[in-house]
Amino acid sequence: MQTTAAALTMVRDDAFFLKAWLRHYGEALGRENCTIINHGRGEEVAELARGCNVIGIPGDPHPNFDMKRWRLLNNLVQGLRCYYDHVIVGDVDELVVVDPAAGVSLLEFLRDQPLRRVLTPVGLEVVHRIDSEPAPIEDHILGPRRHVRLAPHYSKPCVVSQGVKLARGGHFAQSAKLHTPDGLLLFHLKFCDFGTYVQVMDHRNAVTEAVGASVRDAAIGRHWFAQARGEDRAVFEAFEAAAPEAFDLTGVRRAMHRSWKKRGETGFWQFDRVESERVMVLPERFLGVV
Which of 166, 221, 237, 290 has the fewest CB atoms nearer than 10 Å to its CB? Predict the structure, then answer.
């Protein structure tokens, strides 16, 4: 029975991403070490997550949904830390991986990491180039999808082995030291498939409509609201328009450390998050990793 690492997420109906999350962390850590908050007690979520620790909670719409969600996740992370060295926490469409070039599994990687710190992987957005990647995703995502872009907003402090509070959304931590181990990555899957993106955004827009609050009044990410959505196909056409470059993360971690500073008077810390439109081709070694 391993006590090195546990994974934690919260999900409501996102079967596509939950399957990927379960396949990744179930194989890497063992399903018995995966905890899923089943928001709304969905039957499909409960069925897919058999063998995991499933906690069902009410799913009534609430304008402070995200605030409540991260209050729950923060407390569960600290509880799980009593039993595991590291706790990986994040949204269901975020997967922490180790670059295969490191030659070790995620569990082996974490077993060698010092404790009492927060690890921040480099965030990469998996993008679907509709014209050049027509194949559907039937099993693994990396294979049918080969392209990523740098996503500093998803370089999240999400591997926790100390008593620390994470901000709403998990983007910042109340930890003064930044740890960015070489080879540790986070793949964000929101844009990995055009059809799935449309379905998920339709569902999220319906949730915020049921809440009945405005972007300003609700503690819910702006991207959940229809008025902030934009035109779906245009988003993916931009991925297609970018000329793919070779995979290269040189200097990314160094830049994160150079810009490391307090986030005002919040107690959280941050690095500069400069968005990039560069699209990179993943090397062959990543195919099948997610």
Answer: 237
